[in-house]
Write a structure and sequence with these properties.
- The chain is mainly alpha-helical.
- It has a domain at 42-144: NADP-dependent oxidoreductase domain (TIM Barrel, Alpha-Beta Barrel).
- It has 7 helices and 3 strands; from the N terminus they run αβαβαβαααα.
- The chain has a 3-stranded parallel β-sheet with strand order 1-2-3, covered by helices on one side.
- The protein is elongated.
- 27% of the residues are buried.
Length: 153
C-alpha cells in the first residue's frame, strides 16, 4: 500500500478519535517530508546511536520541525576502536559505556528521546543515571569523532 494511502487512513482514524498521534519508523527525510504533507507527524523512530549515525539528516529534519526523534538501539556497539574510545570516556567519568552513549544522545538534540532496552531494574537504573552524566566539551569532541558511516541507508 502506498505511503499516501497508509497515512490517509491514519489521518482518518485520528479524525475519528481512534488514534491520538501519528509516528513514523525508519523513514528518510524525503519520506518524512511527504508524510508531513498529508498528516501531522508527532514522532519518528529510527535506528540511531553514538556509533551509528546514518539517520543524522532525519534527526536534523525532526529537530527543525519540532518532531520527537526516538532512536532505537541507542547503545549499539561498533568497531573495536570506537568501542574502546567509548569505554575510555566511561572510565574517566566513572560510568558505563552504555551511560556514555545515552548521555551523548540526550545532549545531541532536545527532540531526542532514546529507547534503551532493559529487562532488569538495575539496568533501568543504570540507563536513568545517564541523564545525570556530564560530558565535557573534550569528551564530546572525542565522541563526535567516532561517527562511522553505516551501509545501506
Amino acid at each position: 500500500m502506498p505511503l499516501a494511502d497508509q497515512l490517509g487512513t491514519l489521518r482518518e482514524l485520528r479524525t475519528e478519535g481512534k488514534v491520538g498521534r501519528i509516528g513514523l519508523s525508519e523513514v528518510t527525510v524525503t519520506e518524512l517530508d511527504r508524510a508531513r504533507e498529508i498528516v501531522d507527524v508527532a514522532s519518528v523512530q529510527n535506528r540511531y546511536s553514538l556509533l551509528d549515525r546514518a539517520y543524522e539528516p532525519v534527526l536534523a529534519a525532526c529537530e527543525a520541525a519540532g518532531i520527537a526523534f526516538l532512536p532505537w538501539r541507542p547503545v549499539a556497539t561498533a568497531a573495536p576502536g570506537a568501542t574502546a574510545e567509548v569505554a575510555a570516556v566511561a572510565a574517566e567519568l566513572g560510568a558505563t559505556p552504555a551511560q556514555v552513549a545515552l548521555a551523548w544522545l540526550l545532549g545531541r538534540s532536545p527532540v531526542v528521546l532514546p529507547i534503551p532496552g532493559t529487562a532488569r531494574i538495575d539496568h533501568l537504573e543504570e540507563n536513568l543515571a545517564a541523564a545525570d552524566l556530564h560530558l565535557t566539551p573534550a569528551h564530546l569532541d572525542r565522541l563526535d569523532r567516532l561517527d562511522q558511516p553505516s551501509p545501506g541507508v
